Amino acid sequence: MAELRYGKAINQALADAMRADPRVVLIGEDIATAGGPFGVTRGLLDAFGPARVLDAPISEGAIVGAAVGAALCGLKPVAEIMFMDFVTLAMDQLVNQAAKARFMFGGRGGVPLVVRTPHGGGLSAGPQHSQCLEAWLAHVPGLKVVAPATVADAYGLVRSAIDDPDPVVVIEHKGLYAAAEPITSPLSAVPIGQARVVREGTDVTIVTYGAMLGEALVAADRLAADGMRCEIVDLRTLQPWDEAAVLASLARTHRLVVAHEAVEAFGIGAEIAARMADIGFDELDAPIIRVGAPFTPVPFAKPLEDAYRPDAARIAAACRRAVE
Predict the structure, then answer these.
(1) Is 181 a catalytic residue?
(2) 129 part of the active site
(3) What are the backbone angles phi and psi of residue 209, rounded to the nearest 5°?
(4) What are the chain's domains?
(5) Were both Cys, which of 31, 111, 183, 222 would link to 41 (CB 3.0–4.6 Å)?
């Protein structure tokens, strides 16, 4: 039983995909010689050479634009945006070009592009380097969005994203890169669009993704001491999300809490709550509760950032409200 870090799992996924398919190329700021801002691409330049691991200028529009063109010409590029905040500078290329190509071409060709980008706070990186903007991307027809929470899923979802014929955004939490887990079985691809029940329960369902999975597990442990059994569903994929799995869990517990680090307003949780209030109305025994960040930029100061970010205590409080 070996232990593997989240960032290393992504590195391994990239390396395995590049060995399996010579069309897979990497492009991003400082990903070659420096190995990326968080060390995720370390060693890949030596293994595959500068023709397949390309350092780009500090221009997210150029990075994603070049990757879209490469994908249209037969390559399978994996573009890295150093911080998710800067995806704003590549929205035309991603939203108007990559996401629309299959539709514009009458279904005859897609853009097999992967965009990797870290989101989230916890590192005192300030309001321009800590945002969770996944709801923006999940709102765009033509894009798939995944957010791995575990080491195995980090490997598996990156492999599936690279194999997908259409554009996929892989959202990685900065706070997870150093997280290590024991690996008890060979790593393999994880299907896009399938959630996972991480913990079974009977009293309330917690739906979450990314780094909030860890907080949800802590909350569930605390609540178990009081006799409350929480079921935890890790979405893994945000678009298309597995509403059947969430509905099935709601049918078992009849109460629902949705937790994410992103701002609560107009977020992923709002979409899940709206759908479950519609298709799962007959299963609900209590109002759906969302847990998210307040509607304000991410603070820089650690005490303020800690107060801003949702945590196990807030998730546990929401679960208690749901069963009152």
Answers:
(1) no
(2) yes
(3) -165, 165
(4) 2-183 (3.40.50.970), 196-323 (3.40.50.920)
(5) 31
